[in-house]
Every structure is written in C-alpha cells, then in structure tokens.
Amino acid sequence: MPQTLNQSLIEFLQASPTPFHATRNLAQRLQASGFTPLEERDAWHLQPGGRYYVTRNDSSLIAFQLGSRTMVEHGMRLVGAHTDSPCLRVKPHPDLQRQGFWQLGVEVYGGALLAPWFDRDLSLAGRVTYSRDGRIESQLIDFRLPIAVIPSLAIHLNREANQGWAINAQNELPPLIAQVLGEENPDLRALLAEQLSREHDLIADVILDFELSLYDTQPAAVVGLNGDFIAGARLDNLLSCFAGLQALLHAAPEETCLLVCTDHEEVGSCSMCGADGPFLEQVLRRVLPEDESFQRCINRSLLISADNAHAVHPNYADKHDGNHGPKLNAGPVIKVNSNQRYATSSETAGFFRHLCVENEVPVQSFVTRSDLGCGSTIGPITAGQLGVRTVDIGLPTFAMHSIRELAGSQDLAHLVKVLTAFYSSSTLP
Q1: CB 214, CB 122: distance < 8 Å
Q2: Residues forming the annotated binding site?
Q3: Pairing of strands 256-262, 60-65
C-alpha cells in the first residue's frame, strides 16, 4: 500500500510543475472517478448524492460530494491544502543578453531557499495567453526538457562561499538558456509560440502574456538505504493535495465532503483564488444558499488544514522545542500556536488525535520554539473567513521550501488513512 501510493504521488508531482498543472491533474483524476465539472459562470443544478468539482484561475480547485445525510444537521467535512510552492517566476520582459548568453530575468515567488537552485537542470512550465483568429485563449505548456541552468560561481572566485553569502536575486538568479551567436535577438515570446505549436499543434497570432515558473527536472524518488524517504520538489504542499484527493475518492457516501486546494498560500493567500479570497465561501453559498441553513451547517462542520510540518533535523535538533520534535515516518503532526498562527484548538486537536488512535495511525505534535517566530498556513485564514472549526496538521518534512524536499516514505499512507476516516466519520465534535 505505501509503495503504490508513493509511486502514484511521484507521478503526480512529475506531472504538476506549476499550480496550473497540479489543478489540471487533480481535475482529470476527479473526472475519471465520476466527479462532474462545474463552471462558475453557469447555473448549477446539484443533485443529492452528486460529486462535483470547480476550478478558478486554472490554479485552485474545490471538489465536493453531497452526502445523503443533511448538511444542516450533520455538517461538512473539509480538507484544505494549497497548490503553490516557492519557486522562480519569469518576469514579463525577461530577455537578457549578457556576455554572449541568453538569460531570463526572474523574481522569487514565496519564501524560497535560494542556494539549492544553483547547478540544477531546470525546465519551464506555466500558462500562456495568446490571440488566435481574433480570440484570446490560454494554454498550459511544459517544456519538460532541461533548458536552463543557474551556474554557481567557482570557489576560486568566491573564497567565502562556504562561510555563506547573501544571494542577490536580481543579479545572481537569471538562468542561462542558450548562447547567443552573431546578431541573434533573444525572444522568449517566439520560443513560447514554438512550444505552443509543438505541444498543442496550434499557431498563435500574438503571445500576449504568460505566467511561467522554472522547475527542477529531476523526478521525485524514494531514496535511502532502506527506502525510508521520498525526495522531490513541491512536496509542500502537493503531498497534502494528493493525500486529500485519495481520501475524497474513498469517502463514505453518507457524508458531505470537500477538498479545497487553493493557490497563493506561499505569498499570503490574498487573491481571488486564494484562501484569503471569496472562492470557498462563494462555492458553499451556492451549495447552501439559505443564510440560516448555511450558518448552522458551518457551525457543525470541521476543517482539517493539511500543510507540511517541520521534522526535527538531526543536524539542527536545537531548532526545535525538546518536547515537540516530529519525526519522519511517525505519522501526521498536529500543529499548535497560542498566537493563532495555527487554528488548532484543544477540541479540534482532541478530535484529530482520537481519529488517529481509532484508525491506528501514529500522531505527533509540533510547537515552535518560544524564541523563534512561527509560520502560518491556510488554517487560520479559512477559519477567520468562514468561522469553521479547524485543526492544522501536516506531514513532517525536511528542507521545506527547497527545490528538493524530503519526507518519510511511510507517512503518506498514514495521512491518507486518517483523512479517509475523517471523510467517513459520522460524528464531529
């Protein structure tokens, strides 16, 4: 079971280099399992027992099944995650010609660890908007091949490199994508037009704009002497999106269940398709339009906000509180912060802990050191938007926000098992 899940996760990660691709892959898997796509611009005709999904901006998705038990009396079971990861995004006018090389200007998206981006085989993927025959259209593209690299400066020219240096994002991160010969004029838009032709067999009149990300072409893999780890890009937080999907596909038909995968968490979630925007509430209002019924349902519901947690690193164990150091392969982590950086309460933590015990899933706790700042996630944002009770959890991870992160190879199965049990739970606190 863990091996099959891990391999499916690896395939999902490989096919999801951007939030756009992740959302498309989630949608394809949902539709293949009988979920009906909805368009926000259309009237919805929802049926009891129906299974549906809707996307926004091509980068966020909400999937839901309408259970046979009434939502007003029994609430909803929600699992939330996010589709975005820290990365390097291409600027609108990126073409640079320096020292005979074609480079792309980039900006840092989110709180990325920058050093691991050097000396990697990088590719480019995202969404391209173009005009064709008088119409404006968009397509997802993925070059797949390693077409870019950010070479390190040799140690001989930077003797202090191993003592640490401040990376200048403007000057040091533009990747090389080609050498420029003679009078060539580098033109990314022309390259994108060629890619649209290769990948989609279409001829664009004009490339109008794009949202492109660089990514590491090295596939995720199970690693370690005994296969104890999963190494790969975007584990934060596509691992949780994938686990939530697997659980939803096996949810009990009696319960109303939602999977909410939103974009822009790494930059604060404040967007029309982020957790700090109206997407989730607008969808729920269409499911339950009557105000009092909506409020009663929300107050009987519970959200599990799933986002990766910091595992205690053997080389940096002092970065953790001694009593709250989550281990890899020891199960999901309940995240707690008294300053509401996480939305967990004793009631919601107790429910999740009991759910784990009932289903023989190991469970851990995380509280950041009292002398360190604490990150946050979509849990407090969604709780503040909807007033829904929330528990923040996640799988323990090393190297969070690196170009290649590390998780335990047993933990995905633990998370899928407890989320499936949550979706099928007949009682909420």
Answers
A1: yes
A2: 82, 156, 401
A3: antiparallel
- What is the fold of 87-216? Aminopeptidase i, Domain 2 (2.30.250)
What was the pLDDT predicted at 1?
67
Residue type for position 358: E
Binding residues for Zn(2+): 82, 156, 401
| Interstrand relation of 229-232 and 405-408 (parallel, antiparallel or unpaired) | antiparallel
pLDDT band at 8 (very low <50, low <70, confident <90, very high): very high
Burial class (CB in 10 A: 0-12, 13-18, 19+), 127: buried
Q: Decide if pLDDT at 194 tops 90.
A: yes
- The answer to whether residue 429 scores a pLDDT higher than 90 is no
The widest CA-to-CA distance across the chain, in whole angstroms, is 73
Contact 364, 327 (CB under 8 A): yes
| Two tokens, residue 333 | 């982590």
Residues with Cβ within 8 Å of 253's Cβ and at least 6 positions away in sequence, in order, are 49, 65, 67, 68
Beta-carbon-side half-sphere exposure of residue 367 (alpha carbons within 13 Å): 15
The hierarchical CATH code for the domain 2-85+233-423 is 3.40.630.10
For 402-428, what is each residue's pLDDT tens digit?
999 999 999 999 999 999 999 999 889
Q: From the CA atom positions of the chain, what is the Rg in Å?
A: 22
